[in-house]
């Protein structure tokens, strides 16, 4: 259904839906929601969920007319085909300044998830409502790379590949490689299975694949992606972080790599100090 080569022109699809009791836009919005891990329902008490379901029972769900940064709503937007609508549903709420990224040099070094952890950059999930959000923020001591959470299985992997293919075959007024840039950054963060585990542990990635399968998917896909401006901007932000915090990075890297040894030394020192205190107390008591 979402294969690029099998897409039916929207004009034909729109005419066919006139004879079907189906809201195509709601259908696409529902399946597009599969990209995002379902945390919200887990945090809401069960009785609230059941009450909400009772209130909405019998009503036909409608797609809210969200407005894009260019003033275009989901209802007024006319895609070329169903795959185009799926992509639009994922990025429609992206702000105009997010689309208008101006990238500089692309000859920058990439960093894996473990390497970022070593230099003090924490991976966190973005709360943005669109797929592909990513930015590096600088805190007082550490940095934080925010990424849209992603759920990966056979179906969503197929959709991602085809949306990236659609971006590569389309002419855009501005940087239209939103999905491609996001996938490129995720692929960049993965060099080893340990990197996949790091992404899982931070909630950025949830996958039905094993770490080995997930790594193979992203590294294989990353070789064929168009590098959009958003990808280069993230690399520039990481490079700026490294350049402006050399002392803090060196200290954090040392602590990160040697924290087990440091913890063992501190534990041993604590034991020795405790023994000396006990001996001193015994010695002091013997004088009375």
UniProtKB/TrEMBL annotation:
Source species taxonomy: Eukaryota, Viridiplantae, Streptophyta, Embryophyta, Tracheophyta
Protein name: UPF0481 protein
InterPro entries with a match to the protein in the record: DUF247_pln (IPR004158)
Keywords recorded for this protein, A-Z: Membrane, Transmembrane, Transmembrane helix
Record's keyword annotation contains Transmembrane helix: yes
Protein species of origin: Panicum miliaceum
UniProt KW Transmembrane keyword: yes
Domain of life according to the entry: Eukaryota
Transmembrane feature ranges: 261-282
């Amino acid at each position: 259904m979402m294969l690029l080569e099998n897409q039916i022109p929207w004009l034909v699809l729109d005419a066919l839906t006139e004879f079907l009791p189906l809201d195509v836009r709601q259908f696409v919005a529902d399946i597009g929601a599969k990209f995002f891990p379902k945390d919200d329902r887990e945090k809401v008490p069960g009785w609230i969920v059941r009450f909400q379901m009772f209130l909405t029972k019998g009503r036909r769900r409608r797609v809210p007319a969200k407005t894009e940064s260019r003033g275009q709503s989901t209802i007024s937007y006319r895609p070329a085909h169903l795959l185009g609508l799926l992509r639009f549903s994922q990025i429609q709420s992206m702000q105009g300044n997010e689309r208008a990224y101006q990238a500089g040099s692309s000859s920058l070094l990439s960093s894996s998830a473990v390497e970022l952890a070593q230099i003090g950059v924490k991976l966190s999930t973005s709360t943005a409502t669109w797929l592909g959000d990513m930015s590096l923020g600088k805190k007082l001591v550490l940095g934080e790379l925010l990424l849209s959470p992603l759920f990966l299985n056979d179906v969503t992997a197929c959709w991602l590949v085809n949306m990236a293919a659609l971006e590569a075959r389309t002419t855009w007024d501005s940087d239209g490689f939103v999905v491609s840039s996001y996938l490129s950054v995720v692929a960049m963060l993965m060099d080893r299975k340990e990197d996949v585990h790091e992404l899982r542990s931070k909630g950025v990635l949830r996958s039905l694949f094993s770490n080995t399968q997930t790594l193979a998917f992203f590294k294989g896909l990353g070789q064929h992606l168009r590098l959009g401006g958003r990808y280069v901007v993230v690399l520039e932000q990481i490079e700026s972080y490294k350049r402006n915090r050399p002392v803090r990075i060196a200290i954090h890297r040392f602590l990160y790599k040697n924290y087990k040894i440091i913890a063992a030394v501190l534990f041993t020192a604590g034991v020795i100090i405790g023994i000396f205190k006990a001996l001193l107390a015994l010695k002091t008591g013997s004088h009375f």
